Amino acid sequence: QKEVEQDPGPLSVPEGAIVSLNCTYSNSAFQYFMWYRQYSRKGPELLMYTYSSGNKEDGRFKAQVDKSSKYISLFIRDSQPSDSATYLCAMRRAAGNKLTFGGGTRVLVKP
Amino acid sequence: ETGVTQTPRHLVMGMTNKKSLKCEQHLGHNAMYWYKQSAKKPLELMFVYSLEERVENNSVPSRFSPECPNSSHLFLHLHTLQPEDSALYLCASTAGRVGDTIYFGEGSWLTVV
Q: A43–B94: do the CB atoms touch at under 8 Å?
């Protein structure tokens, strides 16, 4: 079993719709949770960063962490074609420098 | 622009060649990483350097040889690679404090022919 599971997609939505992404994980030691966006042939770009359980919003992006269920989510409201990319979840323990990534979900927002 | 710069952006090399990838960070971070990203596979951690000392080596074949001469620079030396080593190689850095996140460069696209 992979430490972090993420549906590879592709997830296709019409412009303006809400994009809903999620990851599940098995290691209860993970404390910090991140979402990265990666455009084709580019490096991952940090979108959202949360610590432990709870919600965080930044503009059109909302991240949720439910540590009891080992489940994290990213919501993108009012999606735009420019949101078309691969979204990677990542998480790390309290100590150490290692990030563990999900496989990424490819998102297509159609005009 | 994340402050992490990788060169070259694209590299094509033969299986008998020796080449190097370079990474430079301008963020004052003290930990640097090499990740490998292949098609349809999660990002794979290769090496971690903290304060110029290698702290993690994820069973990477010896044909990949990292070098960290100072806290701002990281190299990945490549020799006698295989076609299956073709991938996007990503450098990243972090300040190294508990909870700090990791910032990535744009990556070096490597094709082994």
A: no
